[in-house]
Amino acid sequence: MKFMYGRGYSIEERRQLIPIINKQIVDIICCICHAMKTLYIPFEKSQNENYACLLSTTNSDDDNYESILTLSPQMIDAIKHIWSDEGIQLCYRRRREYRLTDSAKYFLDNISRISGENYMPNDDDILRVRIPTTGIISKDFQFFPYHLQIVDVGGQKRERRKWIHCFDNVTTIIFFASLIEYDQYIADDPSKQNLMEESLALFHIILSSDYFSNASIILFLNKTDLFPERIASKPLRHVYPEFDGNAEAGKSTFLKQMKLIHGQGFKEDEKRRLIPFIYRQILSVVRCICRAMKMLHIRFENERNEEYARVLSSSTYDDAEDSISTLSPRMVEAIRYIWSDEGVKTCYGRRREYRLPDSAKYFLDDIDRISAQNFTPNEDDILRVRIPTTGIVQEDFEFSHVRLRIVDVGGQKTERRKWIHCFDSVTSVIFLASLLEYDQKVDDQLEQNLMEESLGLFRVILKSDYFCNASIILFLNKTDLFPERLAGKPIRYVYPEFDGADNDVQAAREFIKNKYLSLVPKSERYTEKNIYPHFTCSVDSKNIRIVFESVKDTVLAHNLYYWTPY
């Protein structure tokens, strides 16, 4: 704002920032060096340990608490040598495992310019230097035809009491939140609450405060430049499992089945494009099991596999996208040893106690084939690889002289607003729900399982004016996994009203089916708004072919054109 609508920064103001930039650079180096000890990463060159000690000693000087007036030639030399060390670079790549300022690489890459004799901070330097707000700072801007006064306040807990009562006549709140806070934790908080929860708590205070009852709220979700890298290294669902919602019911797998059965299949280049996602899924599965071992207090049978687990947990192996371009020999060896460990097998046997993709065993059992040099995904691989639907995907098929258009949409709560209004002319809805959801929790609502979440969406579909003339095809999916899940947790533990035997798979399936059908308003149960329930296994081509033939016989008579799975 000061650059665009104020007078910018004067030479004197820029000069005053130099000691703070110097201090930030030394802080960054010391932070990385400290993390190397925590992560047991050695320096590539032993002399750099001495350089690290030099900078640490300089940084501990009380006179340098907020700034360093000048970077001496010895300090500059130390910073350059340390930043070029391969051990430091490895530690920087693992920065998600500790707290490091976002501007670290920017300042360290520019150390030669910044340490120059006539250095003057440019606009990029000013934007990146970190000056904590520990008081109330007011700035006036002329934004024709308005005169704006922007007040910057301290966001830290200890600062809020100084300002929150000062703004009973404020007209607008600009609330900044970082998109990457979901993976950042409050260092001194024993509850291990992440910064996003802290930020949400402050946002709630502002929304509830009488001081801001008449103020409009402008919410800025910041750091979009850093978010893709962060989300690639730690998917949002690892912190907020509800992000998956009922998104893993099997919709995309069903669409892939239709493409294999009634479309033109997958071309060689399409198959090759799936390889990085398969690699990523394998790595995610191993990481998930290793995290669960800690949570469930299960030890590795072979202590060597603890080191392999640390190797695979390193963000060194993460690419910028939600994929991994190659599985190195070291990674393959680590995966093999970990998967053969009896402790890991025990943890896998308890997978009902945590969230693990259904395809985990399939991919890990086939690691030798998948890691081979000339690997090309087969149909089973294609059906099992998980690529979350985050937009609207459309496929056309010729089926019994009728052209079908199947539209696959994102099942997550965050995606529904993008599609639910798009289908006011739809003739049929395919609703896929997983039979396993009765035993899967929505993590922020411990009293509610995913089946209740799915039933809620089904109710929305049934009542929506957009689908008032549509027939509903209900696919209750994952029949292959249901018997095992039922044996581990009988359905009466969740729904006491179930009166069948604990091991009666057929009765349990019918119970779940009737939970969905009971949502159909009585006035519509015997009208033209037909509901067609089917039990499916979306990774079984034979099952899908038979089910779809049955659907065709009952529904194509309605001159079906659009098919829309949810």
Automatic annotation (TrEMBL):
It holds the Pfam family Arf. GO terms for cellular component: cytoplasm; heterotrimeric G-protein complex. It comes from the Eukaryota. The keyword Cell inner membrane does not apply. Keywords: GTP-binding, Magnesium, Metal-binding, Nucleotide-binding, Transducer. Mg(2+) binds at residues 252, 389. SUPFAM superfamilies: P-loop containing nucleoside triphosphate hydrolases, Transducin (alpha subunit), insertion domain. InterPro entries: Gprotein_alpha_su, GproteinA_insert, P-loop_NTPase, Small_GTPase_ARF/SAR. SMART domains: G_alpha. One of its GO terms (molecular function) is GTP binding. PROSITE patterns: G_ALPHA. G proteins are composed of 3 units; alpha, beta and gamma. The alpha chain contains the guanine nucleotide binding site. This is Guanine nucleotide-binding protein G(q) subunit alpha. It comes from Rotaria sordida.
